[in-house]
Amino acid sequence: MTVAVKNFSSIMKQMRDAYTGEQTKEFSLAAFIGLQAPSLSDAPDELQKLTLEYQENVNNFYVQEELDLKENVKQLENDKNQTAFFENMRKKKEEALKNRKT
Fold this sequence. Notes:
Elements lengths: L2 H17 L9 H4 L12 H34 L3 H20 L1
């Protein structure tokens, strides 16, 4: 057998052993072959700053979207006139499309 076949066979046996028996444990191929996720602390300051800004922007986006959805649902539940709700949704859709193009 070649080295690659022996390595593959060894990995498959490790995976089998991890998921069989009385106690199953998680098998991490990355850990088994020695891969590690890059640490942000090793990155240059500018990259760390950009990464954190991106994370904040994504989080803010999702928080705002969730708040908007909850507000729209609340309006729909309280508003007997659904045309106003649909008009509001149409306006928000147009705003989102306009913001996406910019």
